[in-house]
Amino acid sequence: MRQFVVVGHDAPTTPDFSLDDLAGAAGRLDVLCRCVNSAFFLSHDIRTDVRAHLVLADEYTVTFDGSDLRRLNPDERSTAALVRNALEEREEAIGHIPVETSPGVSLTRRGFEGTVEDVAARGTVVQLHEDGDPVVDADPPSNPVFVLSDHHDFEPNEADLLADYAEERVSLGPKALHADHAITVAHNYLDTEGFTQY
Amino acid sequence: MRQFVVVGHDAPTTPDFSLDDLAGAAGRLDVLCRCVNSAFFLSHDIRTDVRAHLVLADEYTVTFDGSDLRRLNPDERSTAALVRNALEEREEAIGHIPVETSPGVSLTRRGFEGTVEDVAARGTVVQLHEDGDPVVDADPPSNPVFVLSDHHDFEPNEADLLADYAEERVSLGPKALHADHAITVAHNYLDTEGFTQY
């Protein structure tokens, strides 16, 4: 399984935001929605062996599980509606027990550290870093976990935590990419790895 | 220069569409907006040496030129507003003379064939095809032009025209990708080509 954790530093933690202003008052939720798109969509297909975790302002995490996902569409607005729908049920998220808020989408009361700790237990955390090994030279783990940040850099405490958990550090190329583009490139390298036509 | 042509088969040709329903009544304009995002955005930067052409229902083409672009934001909605703004001035687009409708954005009364003919005169058309040569083995031209389709396949007449103009045929990998993801992957290969750290 491939997993992606995306940190939304300014993301909403209540459902009272407008779908008409995702890039503004909704704290750049558009960035997180594009990450979900990149994590799951293939042409006329969905990647079932993927999980994407959106960390909302270090308070909640919304998890999309490709094996159960329904009602996911590629546009930002409809994905944001799934996040808003998840936040409607935030009172039900008690402790670290996830609440399924729509098919394949669940909400957990857990911030960055709790989420990274959880995914690290089920896979190998790969840090994307400009000084890392070129991804083309790396031997990808069988269950990679990529941790990315929204339009802000990681906070120092987040970067430290990530460095502690990361078992590999790779670079996707010479240009710094948006998180959603990084997910697309990471998928492509994993897709083509060992592909005999390549 | 890198150029991308994206065909929007169901895209609007008048500005009377709602920004609240890009994936529905606006004919999947969300797909085209994500392609613009992938074509231009780097982390905290814009690719200036890029042009992206959105062909709207074979009637108009909206061109984004990275060297002059202003007011482009990553979210779908604000990019759709630039397209709508361009269509507001469609009466000014006479013959094949482009009308600049906002900084770096212009509208031309020209469909698929006219646009492909124009870009082919300034670059090398590369066809993305599942049976093409793996892009990692290809020697990219200095001014590549990638022609992509929205959520529909190319129409037979479009595919024939494209095959006539294409000088290379490459595959980006074993999985069929959405157009915006294909743009991201194409950029990454071109970015890393000959990059000494790679």
Task: Summarize the model shown.
By secondary structure, chain A is of the alpha/beta class.
What do these coordinates show?
The structure is a homodimer of 198-residue chains. Chain A is of the alpha/beta class and 198 residues long. Chain A contains five helices and ten strands; from the N terminus they run E-H-E-E-E-E-H-E-E-H-E-E-H-E-H. The first copy, chain A, has an eight-stranded mixed sheet with strand order 6-7-5-4-1-9-8-10, with helices on both faces. In chain A, strand 2 and strand 3 form a beta hairpin. In chain A, helix 1 packs across helix 2, helix 1 packs parallel to helix 5 and helix 3 runs parallel beside helix 4. Chain A is globular. Chain A starts with a strand and ends in a 6-residue tail after the last helix. Chains A and B meet through helix 1, strand 2, helix 2 and helix 5 of A and helix 1, strand 2, helix 2 and helix 5 of B.
Residues in helices of chain A, as a percent range? 25-40%
Structural category of chain A is alpha/beta
Strand order of the largest sheet of chain A: 6-7-5-4-1-9-8-10
Question: Tally the helices of chain A: what do you get?
Answer: 5
* First-residue to last-residue Cα separation of chain A: 22 Å
Mean of pLDDT of chain A: 93
Beta-strand residue percentage of chain A:
25-35%
Q: Give the chain pair forming the largest contact, with residue counts.
A: A-B, 40 and 40 residues
- Tally the beta strands of chain A: 10
Q: Assembly type of the shown chains? A: homodimer
The H/E string of chain A reads EHEEEEHEEHEEHEH
Q: What is the alpha-carbon Rg of chain A in Å? A: 16 Å
The major pleated sheet of chain A works out as: 8 strands, mixed
In terms of per-residue confidence, which ranges of chain A show pLDDT below 50 for 5 or more consecutive residues? none
Shape of chain A: globular
